[in-house]
Amino acid sequence: MAFAAFSSTSVVAEPAPRKKSRIALFLLLPGILYLVLFFLTPLVSLVLTSLQAPREFGDIGQYDYAFNWQNYVQVVDAYWPHILRSFGYALAATVFALAFSYPLAYFIGVKARRWPLLQSLMLVLVIAPFFISFLLRTLAWKQLLSDESFVITSLKALSLMAPDAHFTGTPAAVIFGLTYNFIPFMTLPLFTTLERLDTRYLEAGSDLYASPFQVFRKVTIPLSMPGIVAGTLLTFIPAAGDYVNASRDFLGGADTQMIGNVIEANFLVLQNYPAAAALSIILMAVILVIVGVYVKRSGTEELL
Amino acid sequence: MSGEGQAGTVVAGLFETENAETARGSRAPLPRPRRWSPSSWILPAYAILAFIFLLIPIAYTFIFSFNDSLKSNISWRGFTFDKWLNVCAVQNGAVCEAFANSIVIGVVATVVATILGTMIAIAIVRYRFRARSGISLLLFLPMATPEVVLGAGLAAQFLAFGVPKDMLTIILAHTMFCISFVVVTVKARVASLDPALEEAGRDLYGSPTQVFLRVTFPLLLPGIIAAALLSFALSFDDFIITNFNSGSVMTFPKYIYISASRGIPAEANVIASAVFLFAIALVLVAQISQAARRRKLAKQG
Amino acid sequence: MAASQFADSGADLTLVGIQKRFPGFTAIEDLNLEIPAGSFFALLGPSGCGKTTTLRLVAGLEEPTAGRILIGGKDVTSTKPHQRPVNTVFQSYALFPHMTILENVAFGLRRRKVSDPVNRAHEALRLVELDHLAARKPQQLSGGQQQRVALARAIVNRPALLLLDEPLGALDLKLRRQMQLELKTIQEEVGLTFLHVTHDQEEAMTMADTVAVMNKGQIEQMGAPEALYELPHTAFVANFLGQSNLFTGEVVESTSAVVAVDVAGIRVAVPVARAQRHAGAVTVGVRPEKLAIHRDAPPADSGTNVLGPGRVIDVSFSGVSTQYLVAIPGAGTIVVFSQNREFGPISHVGDDVWISWNVEHSFGLADVPDEVQRFAGDTDTKSIAAQRREALIAELED
Lengths: 304, 301, 398
Prior knowledge:
Chain A is an all-alpha fold. Chain A has 12 helices and 2 strands, in the order ααββαααααααααα.
C-alpha cells in the first residue's frame, strides 16, 4: 500500500511545476496588481504631473500635460533652502537618534538577555509611543517646552537660556521633535541585530588584547552594522519627508519649513500640483541616491 | 530593506502569543555577568532615564485627558472625569466621528492588506518564479519612500483620473502602504515553518486544500494576527498620507492636526489615552502569557 | 605590562584556593593547581564539572569568588582579560565574521601595536598551512580550517599560556585525530604552556603530558595519562577514563605486600602500593583488558586473582577485540576485553567460565564504598540532563 502511495504521488508530481506556478501566480497577482495600481502608477502620475504646464486662461489648479521641465528649475530656485534644511534636519535627527538609541538597544538586546520578560517589557516601552497619536505626542512636547513651561522658565532662571529666547519655533525644536518621533524606528532594528550579537566575539576580542573601548569599536560596532544602517535609513527617510514637526502649529516656526511643508502647501493649499510633484520627485530621487551610496559604502548590500 | 521589516517584525513579535523567538531569530548565548564596577550602573541608569524621556509626552497626554479644560486644553484647570464620561459631547461629536472613521478605515484596510500580503508572503517563500527580484523591489520601495511622496503620488493619480477623495480613497491609500509590512511580518513566519509539516499533512492523505486549512493556516495564524495588528496600528496613526487623500473626510489624526492651531479638546486626549491603554494591555497580556508558557515548559524539562 | 611583550617561552600557571559561585550554584570549590611552564596540561571532566569555568577564570573572562591566579609568578587575579598574557582557542572558534582570516589573525598583534602584524600573521597562517586562504572570510572555511585559524590567531601572539576550550569538539573523528597530532606538534615547536579543556578522555590522554580529572568543581586525580589510567584513585576516575570492573568488600588480610579483600567469599588481592586504603570496606578494581577468560578453573596462585565460575551473558565483537559480559554470583557483571588473536570467540553465551588476572593489575580506590554509587551516577545522560534542567530553571528564576 505504501508502495502504491509512492507511485501515485510520483504520477501526480509530474505536472506539478506548471500547476505550482499557477498557484504562485494566483497568490501574487492580486497584491502585486494592487501595488502596481496604487504605488507604481501614482509615481508615474507624479512624474507626469511634475511636467505639467498651467492651462491657458484656466483657473487656479488647472494644468495640462506637457514637458515643462522648467518646473524643476523653478522649485529648486524657490525652495532650495527648504530642500537643504530638510536633509540637514533629518541628518541631525538621525545622528541624535542613533546616539540616544544605541546604548538603549545595547542594554535591552545584550545586557538584559538573562531576563526575557524584562527584555520584552522594555521593548514594549520602546514601542509604547507608537500606540499614541504622534501628533498628540508632538503637541505634548510643544506644551512642555513652550515659553511658559516649567523646563524653559527653569532654564531661563538658571541663566542657561537667554531671557528672551524661545525653544519652540526654532530649528532645535524641530530637530528635537524629529529625533523623539523616530527613536523607536532607530532602536528596534538596532535591538534586532544586537540581540543576536554573539558575546563570544566580544570575549575573543578582549582575549586578544583589545581594551573594552577597542572591542566596542572593532567588534561590536562592525557586527551591529546591519542594525545601524537599517535604523539610520528608517529614521532619515521619514524625517526628511516629515512636515508635522516643522509645521508652525507644532514645533516649527516661519523659518523652519521643510520640503514636506512646501509640498503640502503647494498641493493642498496653493493647488500648484506641478510644483508639489516636482518637489516630491526631487525628494525621492535624492533619498534613493543617498540610500544607494550609503548602503554601498557601509557594505551591507545584502540588506536590500 | 530588511531593517524596516525587522522593526516591523519586532513590533509584530510583541503581539504574538507564541513563538516570538522564531520571529526574532535564534537567541545568542547569554552573556556572563561581569565583575561589579561603577560602570555597570551606567547602562541601566541610562535606560531608565531614556524610558522616562520616551514616556513623558504619553504621560502628559494622559494627565491632560483629566483636565477640566474649556475649549483648548493647554493650561491645567483642575481634575475631572467628565471628559472620559462624555467623550462625544464636544463639538457635536466631531472627535468621536473622526475616531469612528479611523476605526472603519483601519479595519477595512487591515483586512484587505492582510489577505493580499499573506498571499504574497506564502508565494515568495514557497514558490520559485521569474521576476522575483523585481517583486521584492516593488515590495520594498513603498517602505523606503517618504510618506509625503506616497501621499502626493496617490493624490496626483486620483486627480488625474478625476476620482473624488473620500473614505474609499483613504482606504485604498492605507491598504497600499500596509501590504509591504504584512508581507515582511508573515514572511518571517512562513520561513520559520518546517515544510515537512505540510509534507506530513499530504502524506497523511490531506488534499492541498485540507493541508492548507488544517496545517499551514493554523501555524501561520500568530504571524498573520501580528501583521494585522501592525497594519491596523499603522493605518490608525497615519496622518501624512491621509491628509493628501481624504478630501473632507475627518480621521482622528487629521482632526488633531486641524485643531492644533485653535486648541485640541481634552476629549482627543481621552480617546488617544484609551487606545494607548488598550494596546498596551493587549501587548502585556501576550507577553506575560508567553513568559508563563516559557517558564512552564522549562519546568517540565 | 606583561601583555605588551612576546613571551619567550611558556609561563607556569598557579591557581590557589579558587572558588567560583554563580547565583544558585557553586561551579568550583577550592581548586588548587600548578601547571609547569612548557607543559601540555589537560583538564578532563564531564560537562558541568567546572572545567570550562576554570579556563574562563584563567582567561579573565570570569572573576573568581575567592582565591588567586598567578601566571609566571605574577598575580593576575584582578587583571582584565585584555591585559593578561593569555590567549584562548574558543570552542566556537569565535572568528570575527566581519574580518578576513588575515585580519582575524593580525587582530591581537594590532591591539598590542606589534610591528609588522601582517607578515607575522602570514607566518602564523603558514604554520597551520592556511596561508593561501588569508583573504577569505571565516564563513567560507570548513570547520577544521576555522579551527586552525583560531589556533593561529591565538599562537601568533606567543602567549605565555594558551587556553584551548574543547576546540576539537565540533570536528568529525578523523579530522579530530589529525588536529590532535598537529596541535601536539605545534606545542612542541613553539614551546608554549597549553591548558586544554576537554570531555574526551582519549583526546586528553593522547595529547597531554599531565591530565587532571575534574568532577563537581574539584580535581579528583592528576598525573601522567598512563599513571591515571593504570592506577585510578577514585571510582569516578576509574570509570571516566576507560572502563573498570569494581568490587567492594571487607579487607581480610593486610601484609607488607598485598591487601586482600573478600568479594562474595573469594579473596581478591591488591598490591599494597596500589591500594589507597588498607582497612575496612574497600573497593578494588581491574581494567577489562587485563582479564583472562578460562573454560576450566585455573590453578590457584598467590600472584593471580581468580573469580568464578560465572556465566557468559553477552558477547559482542568489535574488530580488534571482543567484549564479554560475565555474570558472577556475588560479584556482579564483569566486563572482559579479549584480543581477537584467533578467529571466532573463545567462549559463547551460556558458557560457564572463570576470570583471572595478575594481582599486580588490581587497584584499590580511596572512595568510601557507600559513595561509589553517587560518583558512578554523575556521568550518565540522565543525571547530566537533570543538571542541565536545574541550571535552566535557576537561570529562568534569576
